[in-house]
Structures are given as structure tokens and as C-alpha cells.
Design a protein that fits this description.
single chain; 161 residues; alpha+beta; Aminopeptidase; four-stranded antiparallel β-sheet; three-stranded antiparallel β-sheet; globular
Amino acid sequence: MLDDVFFRELTAAESALLTTATLENLNWCGERFSAIDVSTRSEFVHYTILDPYRGDFGWVAEAGNEAIGVVWAQHLPPDDPGYGFLDEDTPEVSLWVREDWRGRGLGRALLRRAQDDARTRQVPRISLSVEADNYAKNLYLAEGFVDVPGREADGVMAWSP
């Protein structure tokens, strides 16, 4: 199913891809936010910046020279936390798969790359945030993520290698 997919490391120069991915992640259940929201609202804009010097990392899936999915992990600071923020040592993961590529195992393949990276980098755990009725939660559960006690209402989950 993924024979035509090429995986490569995400670079800091790909903020346009992260903007698209963030917007589509926010609008997973219908249009709620705009590209202007993602570019101007502080609670969203930090998701569009990959900073390798901070320890951020990620992967892009491509088919036919087009990005069809991306996973990225960010060490966001306490004064600008993400929805799944736990602490400075726990990078928060975001995952996006283009709609026409969903259901083929691409999200799982990307998530596993992020988990492998976390192991290699000796990151103690990674976190994420997912809305309760988002079908992606089933993927996260299947890949070993668990609800963070006390943060269940926020949809915060964590995985440890």
C-alpha cells in the first residue's frame, strides 16, 4: 500500500507544510479555523515552526513529489505551551495525513518513525493532544499512547519508549 511513498526528514524550512498540516488537523471535523488563524494566533503558530536547535524533529511522507503526510515533535517552552504540553523534556507530537491518503497505514508509519526517533534521541516520552471523538485516537491507543492522568479532558496522551 505504501510502496510509492518516500519518507524523508522534515526540515526547518518547511513551515508552509506545517501550516497546512496544522490547519487541516484543527479542522479535522469541519471548518473551524482559517489559515489566518494558524498564522496569527499564538496557540497555533508555534506548531508551524520546527526548531532543530531546540531538539525538534520530524518526518515527511511524499508520493509523486508531493507531501502527503508529516509527523513532527516539538519541545515547546512552558511560556508558549502546546495543547499536549507536559514539560520541557517531553516533545509534543503532531501528525497529519492528507485526506485522500488516510486509511492506508501512512499515519501509523509516520507515527512509528517519530517513536523510533524518540528512542534514538533517548527522549523519555512524547506527548500529544487529540479530541475525544477524533478517529486518530484509536491509532494512538494502538501504538501504545495512554491518557495522561488528570489531563484526560484535554485529550492529552503520552508514550514512553
